[in-house]
């Protein structure tokens, strides 16, 4: 079937009410949760905490707030692993599948909640045997295999904090993170499968550990049967330790504010920040959002978050949220184009996936690959779709809605951050009418305001996105640096958390995320969002993907530079750049016309799929590229540099 012409341009008026077929069985069909939370947000969260989680001892104070330091559910004790695993088994659901795991080569494992309990207890005992105690840190550098959530839950069971380091990071990045956290143990694997080959991990750990004095032991899963160096006394095979470990490991109750994990994220400086998340508040909000935003029916749903556990999305919506809720989920090891570009759709069909959660950049890649790929498979099991990570352009939203959701699935566009721990702005799918490209409204219990430069709330129009009150899954700080925590998030606007994002509120009160504020350009004194220009470019029938940056310009302050990937079947003419410049001028206005359009074969992306705008700005401004080790393909730049040098600039 030919792809329909894209007639759905950016429009605040295009609305999609919750589909009738969906609403009929939705968990939430009215506004009562919003009303309850508006009336008393703390009481609302206290009720969720008690309803969704199993506490060993109840809390006496819902919130202690000494800006910017919050404590939630003070005096309460619970164990995260017990909430994610034991209680489901105790309730008679031990045979329920927790994880349908699919390896990239096609090997599979079916892990029930009883299996998970056995493995988590054994590995907790392994960690204990290696000297890990409550309060210690454990670094985890692993592929997407079941041992990864097992290792995380084993840490949680003991009250040791994990620091998961994404498998795409370089040895230097591992060293920095391990040293900052002073991790005692590293858990890794020989390798993991990516694009049909064993992508090595253990050699990176070996290089990294040359200068990490805190590390005493390394545990290595044998995933790919490759030859790796095992250092006598330090390195141990996972399967050997597990074979000797007892499956008996009682879960100790932890304080609600016990550190659960650190997750490092880049800020504006070179040094990554160890974002701290704790126990009771974090688990409450991830469980709440996972249940109500994805409308989880745990007995019948097969949920799938196609992210990597190395990022916060995987922590909250592969490990803690779904398991706390007793969900059955799919976990996939590899890339979406192996062995073919229909791999995701074949997995949806095979397991009867009901909810799919992925990123706009992935959706645009699927668009580029063409509708033939999803059309090879029966996707009728899907009943809800989600997106996360960046603003979704309306064209990608419409494509997802039509070609993946069959026009029957609500789309939840979820805005949140590593720092927020869980979703903050998105829709309850049985209640909220969506608009393609808008994350819609703050969730119940969440306070959001858009403010102007001076910090005054803006009722309608654009400004800075701020959070007005503490929320249960908020970061508790930056590891080892409370001042940096205060400065980074709480100093720009008095009494508010500043998220770093620009946003606008439309005439109907919908929130539209405009990207990071440093991605919002200022052209001759006009604020223009890179997202808006990208959206216009992607709306052109010849464009597959676009990234726009504001480069310093002596006349206009900043100038718009657009990097564009054309669709596979388009032969560019010398005038193609000019054509696209005019197209943008037509879509948004002459002020948004890019100065330069650079046609490129690919875009520089982090392994998590985020476009690296900083690098694109550097190319546009002719600067040194610096560290590009987190690029999916470091060679992308050679080509981009060559084309940038050739591209003609517009005269006006
Ligand atoms: O700019 C926002 C964007 O991603 C940033 C957070 O990135 P990170 O901490 O890596 O977490 C990503 C996964 C939660 C935000 O400051 N962002 C995330 N989700 C959206 C988004 N921008 C627009 N719409 C979203 N749905």
Automatic annotation (TrEMBL):
<feature type="binding site">
    <location>
        <begin position="413"/>
        <end position="418"/>
    </location>
    <ligand>
        <name>ATP</name>
    </ligand>
</feature>
<dbReference type="Pfam" id="PF00501">
    <property type="entry name" value="AMP-binding"/>
</dbReference>
<feature type="binding site">
    <location>
        <position position="516"/>
    </location>
    <ligand>
        <name>ATP</name>
    </ligand>
</feature>
<dbReference type="GO" id="GO:0016208">
    <property type="term" value="F:AMP binding"/>
</dbReference>
<dbReference type="InterPro" id="IPR032387">
    <property type="entry name" value="ACAS_N"/>
</dbReference>
<keyword id="KW-0436">Ligase</keyword>
<keyword id="KW-0479">Metal-binding</keyword>
<dbReference type="InterPro" id="IPR025110">
    <property type="entry name" value="AMP-bd_C"/>
</dbReference>
<feature type="domain" description="Acetyl-coenzyme A synthetase N-terminal">
    <location>
        <begin position="32"/>
        <end position="84"/>
    </location>
</feature>
<dbReference type="GO" id="GO:0019427">
    <property type="term" value="P:acetyl-CoA biosynthetic process from acetate"/>
</dbReference>
<comment type="similarity">
    <text>Belongs to the ATP-dependent AMP-binding enzyme family.</text>
</comment>
<dbReference type="GO" id="GO:0005829">
    <property type="term" value="C:cytosol"/>
</dbReference>
<dbReference type="Pfam" id="PF13193">
    <property type="entry name" value="AMP-binding_C"/>
</dbReference>
<dbReference type="GO" id="GO:0046872">
    <property type="term" value="F:metal ion binding"/>
</dbReference>
<feature type="binding site">
    <location>
        <begin position="194"/>
        <end position="197"/>
    </location>
    <ligand>
        <name>CoA</name>
    </ligand>
</feature>
<feature type="binding site">
    <location>
        <begin position="389"/>
        <end position="391"/>
    </location>
    <ligand>
        <name>ATP</name>
    </ligand>
</feature>
<keyword id="KW-0067">ATP-binding</keyword>
<feature type="modified residue" description="N6-acetyllysine">
    <location>
        <position position="610"/>
    </location>
</feature>
<dbReference type="InterPro" id="IPR045851">
    <property type="entry name" value="AMP-bd_C_sf"/>
</dbReference>
<dbReference type="InterPro" id="IPR042099">
    <property type="entry name" value="ANL_N_sf"/>
</dbReference>
<keyword id="KW-0007">Acetylation</keyword>
<comment type="function">
    <text>Catalyzes the conversion of acetate into acetyl-CoA (AcCoA), an essential intermediate at the junction of anabolic and catabolic pathways. AcsA undergoes a two-step reaction. In the first half reaction, AcsA combines acetate with ATP to form acetyl-adenylate (AcAMP) intermediate. In the second half reaction, it can then transfer the acetyl group from AcAMP to the sulfhydryl group of CoA, forming the product AcCoA.</text>
</comment>
<dbReference type="GO" id="GO:0005524">
    <property type="term" value="F:ATP binding"/>
</dbReference>
<dbReference type="InterPro" id="IPR000873">
    <property type="entry name" value="AMP-dep_synth/lig_dom"/>
</dbReference>
<feature type="binding site">
    <location>
        <position position="524"/>
    </location>
    <ligand>
        <name>CoA</name>
    </ligand>
</feature>
<keyword id="KW-0460">Magnesium</keyword>
<protein>
    <recommendedName>
        <fullName>Acetyl-coenzyme A synthetase</fullName>
        <ecNumber>6.2.1.1</ecNumber>
    </recommendedName>
</protein>
<dbReference type="GO" id="GO:0003987">
    <property type="term" value="F:acetate-CoA ligase activity"/>
</dbReference>
<feature type="domain" description="AMP-dependent synthetase/ligase">
    <location>
        <begin position="91"/>
        <end position="479"/>
    </location>
</feature>
<feature type="binding site">
    <location>
        <position position="538"/>
    </location>
    <ligand>
        <name>Mg(2+)</name>
    </ligand>
</feature>
<feature type="binding site">
    <location>
        <position position="313"/>
    </location>
    <ligand>
        <name>CoA</name>
    </ligand>
</feature>
<dbReference type="Pfam" id="PF16177">
    <property type="entry name" value="ACAS_N"/>
</dbReference>
<feature type="domain" description="AMP-binding enzyme C-terminal">
    <location>
        <begin position="532"/>
        <end position="610"/>
    </location>
</feature>
<feature type="binding site">
    <location>
        <position position="501"/>
    </location>
    <ligand>
        <name>ATP</name>
    </ligand>
</feature>
<feature type="binding site">
    <location>
        <position position="527"/>
    </location>
    <ligand>
        <name>ATP</name>
    </ligand>
</feature>
<feature type="binding site">
    <location>
        <position position="540"/>
    </location>
    <ligand>
        <name>Mg(2+)</name>
    </ligand>
</feature>
<feature type="binding site">
    <location>
        <position position="543"/>
    </location>
    <ligand>
        <name>Mg(2+)</name>
    </ligand>
</feature>
<dbReference type="InterPro" id="IPR011904">
    <property type="entry name" value="Ac_CoA_lig"/>
</dbReference>
<keyword id="KW-0547">Nucleotide-binding</keyword>
């Amino acid at each position: 079937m030919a792809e329909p012409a894209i007639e759905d341009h950016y429009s605040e008026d295009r609305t999609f009410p919750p589909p009738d077929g969906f609403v009929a069985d939705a968990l939430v069909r009215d506004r009562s949760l919003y009303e309850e939370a508006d009336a008393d947000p703390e009481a609302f969260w206290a009720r969720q905490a008690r309803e969704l989680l199993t506490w060993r001892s109840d809390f006496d104070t819902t919130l202690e707030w000494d800006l910017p330091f919050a404590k939630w559910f003070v005096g309460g004790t619970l164990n995260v692993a017990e909430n994610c695993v034991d209680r489901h088994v105790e309730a008679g659901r031990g045979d329920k599948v927790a994880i349908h795991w699919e390896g990239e080569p096609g090997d599979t494992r079916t892990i029930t909640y009883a299996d998970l309990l056995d493995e988590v207890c054994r590995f907790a005992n392994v960690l204990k045997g290696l000297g890990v105690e409550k309060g210690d840190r454990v670094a985890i550098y692993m592929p997407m295999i079941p041992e990864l959530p097992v290792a995380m839950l084993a840490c949680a069971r003991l009250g040791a904090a994990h620091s998961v380091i994404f498998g795409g990071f370089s040895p230097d990045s591992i060293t920095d993170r391990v040293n900052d956290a002073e991790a005692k143990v590293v858990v890794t694997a020989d390798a993991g499968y990516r694009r049909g080959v064993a992508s090595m991990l253990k050699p990176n750990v070996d290089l990294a550990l040359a200068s990490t004095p805190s590390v005493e032991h390394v545990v290595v899963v044998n995933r790919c049967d490759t030859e790796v160096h095992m250092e006598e006394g330090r390195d141990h095979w996972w399967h050997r330790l597990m074979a000797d470990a007892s499956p008996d490991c009682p879960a100790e109750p932890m304080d609600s504010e016990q550190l659960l994990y650190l997750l490092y994220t880049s800020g504006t400086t070179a040094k990554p920040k160890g974002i701290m998340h704790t126990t009771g508040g974090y688990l409450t909000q991830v469980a709440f959002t996972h249940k109500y935003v994805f409308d989880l029916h745990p007995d019948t749903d097969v949920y799938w978050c196609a992210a990597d556990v190395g990022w916060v999305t995987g922590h909250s919506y592969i490990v803690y949220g779904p398991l706390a809720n007793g969900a059955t989920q799919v976990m996939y090891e590899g890339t979406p184009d192996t062995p073919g570009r229909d791999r995701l759709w074949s997995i949806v069909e095979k397991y009867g996936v009901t909810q799919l959660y992925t990123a706009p950049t992935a959706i645009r890649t699927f668009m580029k690959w063409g509708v033939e790929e999803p059309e090879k498979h029966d996707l009728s099991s899907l009943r809800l779709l989600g997106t996360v990570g960046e603003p979704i352009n309306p064209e990608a939203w419409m494509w997802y809605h039509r070609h993946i959701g069959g026009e029957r699935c609500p789309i939840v566009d979820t805005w949140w951050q590593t720092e927020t721990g869980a979703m903050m702005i998105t829709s309850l799918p049985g209640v909220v009418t969506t608009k393609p490209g808008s994350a819609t409204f703050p969730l119940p219990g969440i306070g959001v305001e858009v403010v102007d430069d001076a910090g005054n709330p803006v009722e309608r129009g654009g400004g800075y996105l701020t959070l007005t009150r503490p929320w249960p899954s908020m970061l508790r700080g930056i590891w080892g640096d409370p001042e940096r925590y205060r400065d980074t998030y709480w100093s720009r606007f008095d009494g508010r958390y500043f998220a770093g994002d620009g946003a606008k509120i439309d005439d109907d009160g919908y929130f539209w995320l405009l990207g990071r504020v440093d991605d919002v350009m200022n052209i001759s004194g006009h604020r223009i969002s890179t997202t808006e220009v990208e959206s216009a470019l992607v709306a052109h029938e010849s464009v597959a993907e676009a990234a726009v940056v504001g480069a310093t310009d002596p006349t206009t302050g900043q100038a718009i530079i657009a990097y564009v990937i054309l669709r596979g079947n388009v032969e560019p003419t010398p005038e193609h750049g000019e054509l696209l410049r005019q197209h943008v001028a037509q879509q948004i206005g002459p002020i948004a016309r890019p100065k330069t359009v650079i046609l490129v074969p690919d875009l520089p992306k982090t392994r998590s799929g985020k476009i690296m705008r900083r690098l694109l700005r550097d190319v546009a401004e002719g600067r040194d590229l610096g560290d590009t080790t987190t690029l999916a393909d470091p060679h992308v730049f050679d080509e981009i540099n060559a084309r940038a040098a050739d591209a003609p600039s517009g005269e006006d």
